Amino acid sequence: GGIITQTPKFLIGQEGQKLTLKCQQNFNHDTMYWYRQDSGKGLRLIYYSITENDLQKGDLSEGYDASREKKSSFSLTVTSAQKNEMAVFLCASSITGAQDTQYFGPGTRLLVL
Amino acid sequence: GDSVTQTEGQVALSEEDFLTIHCNYSASGYPALFWYVQYPGEGPQFLFRASRDKEKGSSRGFEATYDKGTTSFHLRKASVQESDSAVYYCALDIGNTGKLIFGLGTTLQVQP
Q: Would you call B43 and A44 a contact, using CB atoms and an 8 Å cutoff?
């Protein structure tokens, strides 16, 4: 078995601030993902990475940067937090990608004041 | 473009009721289809998947059959329990690339 750890669990930021979320997995999976979950909107893909130092944009990449410097970790940066923004950011990993099960972390809850 | 539609936003049932959550998709070819379940405060968990027409996926008493003709993958369970209360997501794998498109989710509330 394995686990996905996301830090921090809760993040409160100010409008315009740059905020970084971190994700670690010990599954030894190749592919990692970042999703945003908004109430009533399901999950939307922000970035994914199929291997170390690879980055692929999802449908919601504008306003975000990502970094995959190690196989086990994947970071997401909100480049400029939007006032009153409230969402959950979910990290996931899978063995390779196509048709594979994705394993999710517990999420980071963001609130921007 | 590819999409997933879950008809029910919320479903309220009593224990031992029969559950159906409708999922229809729009995509070319044979995308892999998934069901995930999310409990409060947790990330989604994989339930099962199917990748061929008429293939049935199942887990924990839940099941769904891939139907290419009706482009559907409806989730069913014969007898729900209070512990099944959660949000259920249908998803498809775009072009079988690992990029998932999720439906908006269906919140299931089961009363004892």
A: no
- Dihedral pair phi/psi, residue B83, rounded to 5°: -70, -10
pLDDT above 80: residue B96: no
Chain A, nearest residue to B43 by Cα = A106
Taking contacts as CB-CB distances below 8 angstroms, the residues of chain B near A43 are 44, 89, 100, 102
Give the residue with greater pLDDT, A85 vs A47: A47
CA–CA distance from B23 to each of A19, A89, A104, B61, B70 (Å)? 36, 24, 22, 18, 10
B41 contacts on A by Cβ (under 8 Å):
106
Q: Please state, in angstroms and rounded to a whole number, the distance separating the CA atoms of residues A26 and A8.
A: 18
Give percent of chain A with pLDDT exceeding 90. Answer: 85
Cβ-contact B106, A104 below 8 angstroms: no
How far apart CA B19 and CA A15 sit, in angstroms, is: 43
